[in-house]
Amino acid sequence: MTAAVLSGRELAAAIKSETAAEAARLSAAGTAPTLAVVVATADESSAWYVRSIARATEQVGIACDVVDLGQEATGPEIRRTLDALSADDRVHGIILQTPLPPGVDAQEMALAIRFDKDVDGANPLSLGRLAAGLSAFAPATAEAVVRILEHHGVDLAGRHVAVVGRSTVVGKPAAHLLLDRNATVTVCHSRTRDLAAVTSAADVVVAAAGRIGLITADHVAPGAVVVDVGTNPTEDGGLVGDVDAASVGEKAGALTPVPGGVGPVTTALLLAHTVQAASALRRA
Ligand code: NAD
Fold it and tell me: Can you tell me which residues bind NADP(+) (predicted)?
């Protein structure tokens, strides 16, 4: 592998340590930052993720309330829970964990998350505000893409960035954040013709498709910077990205690892957003 490894661990540690200091300051002043995580699934990878968030909140001094409604929860029940948490002065951040029960639409539900408590940018209102250049919490993963590039000194202004994936949690918000940094952004998706031709014309490739090995050496220009957002479980219990690191690592200039790249920064930003929300709500 000749590409530089753009780790997210050091940046995540720095964000967590700033967040812990701010959480301690707020707690001492009588506001204990609190994150509520609403769960309505028995999905094992979701349970693993919720446990990892709970551990991370504990490390930085944020309280975490997991509200488990069970996999039979209905849309109205989930909405009522989100309404109640939105109105609860003790709660500063709200995450609605997916998947949701069949027939329950995550975006419809997320409309019930008060936007200034929407620390993972799940409410469509947050995406709209982000697109309009108004203040809003971006989905933590999308923000992690930009923060990891900035942390490693990758200049985005005027550069061509190809984002592979157009979901509302990663691809679209990442494209808006990159545009805000003056990048020239192309958003690719499952219907894009000749993906390799588009991505290999880019200075930076952001892979967020959830497809193991989608991005190979044929998809990147020599020396390009590649951000691998994919977190795809393997049969042996491991985790791999969307990028074929073996071949891309020989051609790209830099590559984020999986695990240890975007993932840890995402978690750290969720914590940071919760403390920012607590601070803003306290002043309000
Ligand atoms: P999604 O399934 O909602 O969206 C996938 C997107 O990729 C779609 O827009 C689709 O059009 C596009 N796509 C699929 N196949 C393609 C192909 N062959 N060519 C081009 N585009 C293609 O997924 P998502 O929720 O946006 O997540 C994407 C990946 O990011 C997943 O692996 C997910 O696990 C990972 N993820 C990681 C984190 C993290 O913290 N690191 C957080 C969220 C998501």
Answer: 165-167, 231
3-state secondary structure 234-278: CCCCCEECCECHHHHCCCCCEECCCCCCHHHHHHHHHHHHHHHHH
Show the ligand 1 pocket: residues with CB < 6 angstroms: 141, 164-167, 169-171, 188-190, 192, 195, 208-211, 214, 229-232, 262-263, 266
Residue 16 located in a structural domain: no
**Cα–ligand 1 centroid distance for 144 (angstroms):** 15
Give the mean model confidence (pLDDT) for residues 15-39.
98
Q: Please indicate, yes or no, if residue 250 is contained in any of the structural domains.
A: yes
How many distinct structural domains can be found in the chain? 2
Domain that includes residue 240, residue range: 140-262
Give me ligand 1 centre to Cα 87, in Å.
Answer: 32
Does residue 272 form part of some domain? no
pLDDT band at 1 (very low <50, low <70, confident <90, very high): confident
Q: What angle do CA 3, 230, 117 make, to 5 degrees?
A: 120
Average pLDDT over residues 163-172: 98
Q: Is the pLDDT of residue 119 over 90?
A: yes
Taking only the tens place, the pLDDT of each residue in 254-284 is: 999 999 999 999 999 999 999 999 999 998 8
pLDDT at 237: 84
Average pLDDT across the chain, whole number: 97
Mutate to test the pocket of ligand 1, among 48, 107, 168, 170 (most ligand atoms within 8 A of CB): 170
Q: Do 252 and 168 lie in a common domain?
A: yes
Q: Minimal CA–CA distance to 242: which of 254, 257, 252? A: 257
